[in-house]
């Protein structure tokens, strides 16, 4: 019996491969293509890929709009790689860092017609590897042993909900702001980041629990950045749970609303150029919010909680939990002080993302 990796295992390998600059093979019916992340593509690897066939780029519609490329494929655009262009040109398409210095990348000719599911899967893979959402796609007929391959299209978008998570450890941690807590570590089967649950006191399972789903923010939570409200929200939530005597805080490793810390810093760099938090995400090729809140719902259920009093200003979080089987009996606002660095950010969250601030 050959040992065949599961889809979760293949996904974990594919993310690692893309991050180090290796292409993966994706098959969709009769079509097979090599897919590589542009962010990590070296000139030497590009030359190898060119020897396999005619490459094209797949970008999200968000990035294509910034580049003024035509979008014929709904949520993505495909651009052929011209023979006289190379790694620098590709990098310019993927990475907005050079947009101001070099605004004219085109004219850019977009491809039309034909199947686009391999491209869509490739972009989803690059996003889940926390790379820039832009991939090089090379249709091929060769059998390429040694590369990670998907023999059918990976249904990445629906995977997170189904991914199993194992509790790997739990132990008591006394907290300055909340008293006794128990920290649980959960590890997803598909190699994604671990998530944490902090149980404060001994919350009853048969009553709505005071809960917070907190997305990781290295800059705010750890460094005390004044650019956002994350650190004060984290501390205030813990303090309220301590005062309440019980609660549960999920610390979800979805840094930068799911785009990863490197991309969040790219977004900050665009914000330094004057774009707001939403525009910066779009210029990078991301949606405003790439988080998958199903993970939070799954974790709450796993901990035995079916109903929550949710500490949040974000109505989407309430909606997503309810959609995924967790009753939100009350939304408890979590308002923290403004300062001159975060006030614009909070205004945009209220205006464009519907936060109740
Ligand atoms: N992409 C991006 N992410 C940011 C930026 N500023 C903060 N973040 C991230 O935004 C997320 C905020 O998470 P939360 O505080 O849990 O969620 P929220 O949507 O603000 O809703 P609340 O429950 O009301 O706080 C964290 O993952 C931060 O890292 C930014 O300018 N760009
Ligand atoms: Zn933050």
TrEMBL record:
Gene3D superfamilies: GTP cyclohydrolase II (3.40.50.10990). This is GTP cyclohydrolase-2. The gene is ribA. It comes from Paracoccus pacificus. Keywords: GTP-binding, Hydrolase, Metal-binding, Nucleotide-binding, Riboflavin biosynthesis, Zinc. It comes from the Bacteria. The lineage of its organism: Bacteria, Pseudomonadati, Pseudomonadota, Alphaproteobacteria, Rhodobacterales. The active site is at residues 289, 291. InterPro entries: GTP_cyclohydro_II (IPR032677), RibA (IPR000926), RibA-like_sf (IPR036144). GTP binds at residues 212-216, 233, 255-257, 277, 312, 317.
């Amino acid at each position: 019996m050959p040992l065949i990796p599961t889809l979760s295992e293949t996904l974990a390998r594919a993310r690692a491969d893309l991050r180090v600059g290796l292409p993966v093979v994706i098959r969709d019916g009769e079509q097979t293509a090599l897919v590589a992340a542009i962010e990590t593509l070296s000139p030497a690897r590009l030359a190898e890929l060119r020897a396999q066939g005619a490459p094209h780029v797949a970008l999200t519609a968000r990035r294509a709009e910034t580049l003024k490329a035509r979008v014929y494929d709904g949520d993505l655009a495909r651009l052929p790689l011209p023979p006289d262009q190379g790694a620098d040109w590709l990098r310019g398409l993927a990475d907005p860092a050079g947009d101001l210095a070099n605004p004219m990348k085109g004219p850019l000719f977009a491809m039309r017609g034909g199947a686009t599911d391999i491209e869509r899967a490739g972009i989803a893979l690059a996003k889940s590897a926390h790379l820039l959402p832009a991939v090089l796609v090379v249709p091929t007929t060769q059998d390429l042993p040694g590369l990670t391959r998907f023999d059918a299209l990976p249904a990445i978008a629906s995977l997170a909900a189904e991914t199993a998570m194992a509790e790997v450890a739990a132990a008591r941690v006394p907290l300055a702001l909340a008293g006794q807590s128990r920290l649980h570590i959960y590890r997803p089967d598909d190699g994604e980041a671990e998530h944490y649950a902090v149980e404060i006191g001994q919350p009853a399972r048969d009553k709505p629990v005071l809960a917070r789903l907190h997305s990781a923010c290295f800059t705010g939570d750890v460094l005390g950045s004044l650019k956002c409200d994350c650190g004060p929200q984290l501390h205030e939530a813990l303090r309220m749970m301590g005062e309440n005597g019980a609660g549960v805080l999920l610390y979800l490793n979805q840094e930068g609303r799911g785009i990863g810390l490197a991309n969040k810093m790219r977004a900050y760099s665009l914000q330094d150029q004057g774009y707001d938090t939403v525009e910066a995400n779009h210029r990078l090729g991301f949606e405003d919010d790439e988080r998958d809140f199903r993970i939070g719902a799954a974790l709450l259920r796993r901990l035995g909680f079916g109903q929550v009093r949710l500490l949040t200003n974000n109505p989407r979080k309430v909606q997503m939990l309810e959609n995924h089987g967790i009753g939100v009996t009350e939304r408890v606002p979590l308002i923290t002080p403004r300062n001159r660095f975060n006030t614009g950010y909070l205004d945009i969250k209220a205006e464009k993302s519907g936060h109740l601030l």
